[in-house]
């Protein structure tokens, strides 16, 4: 699994099968008080391995104190048929265009080799846009490495909310979330695919450190990881991270002005660094306090 795939859209998906020290001093959850309500802002790991899927204790307290669960997408009401239809409509190349033609012989050979290693016939990729191919290869590598969205933060919380009859909501629509990838210029899509191909199965120790930083709520470490990715590829991370933070901020502040306590869960790297939600909220006069 490479860093490019790691921080594309989900912002933080981590390698499993590792022994990770438990958090002691802090957590990836912040509490923010509004005039008449409290908002819990939590950093997520969207995929976790079954053997290391227990959430930090602050999630339990934040969930119990909240009347509503808010995520990037409303996974509690997500129509998988609609997802498949959207991908078919927006992730397919125009008629008369093929992936080998767009990628060129050398790059396509790398894609075909990576797909074969992951058990995916390259023929199935020929009609797909480069950004879709990158996501598919990353997804297959997640599976190979034992990661499972069913054990990720959001899925665990959604299952609990549905069992408890607690309402769920999203900060953006499917079209907004996936559309940010579709809208990337072709050159950015190709570079993103190149990074994924170069980094598949790479850097398990680095990913272990990211997971440790998440569990500990280690803001400097997460911020350092994010700033590095921005330096490497700012044209990608502006639309996928910074711009989405700006779009979410008014919604989060409306929740803070309401009457209900809410738990808001987003990818951890949306919280930290320049342009992160914690910084934006502080600039607007709020005081996020990290939970233990």
Structure description:
The chain has helices spanning 3-6, 57-64, 80-90, 99-103, 105-117, 130-144, 153-164, 174-182, 186-199, 204-216, 219-232, 234-256, 277-283; strands at residues 29-33, 38-44, 68-71, 168-170, 262-267, 289-290. With 292 residues, it is of the alpha/beta class. The chain has one domain. Strands 4-3-5-2-1-6 form a six-stranded mixed beta sheet, with helices on both faces. The two termini are 30 Å apart.
Q: Give the helix level as a range of percent.
A: 40-55%
Total of helices: 13
Q: Measure the end-to-end span.
A: 30 Å
Coarse morphology: globular
Question: H/E order of the elements?
Answer: HEEHEHHHHHEHHHHHEHE
Q: Rg from C-alpha positions? A: 19 Å
Main sheet: strands, sense, barrel: 6 strands, mixed
Tally of individual domains: 1
Number of strands: 6
Overall pLDDT score: 85
> Which stretches are low in confidence, meaning pLDDT under 50 for 5 or more residues running?
1-24
Q: How would you classify the helix and strand content by structural class?
A: alpha/beta
Which percent range describes the beta-strand content? 5-15%
| Strands in their spatial order, largest beta sheet | 4-3-5-2-1-6
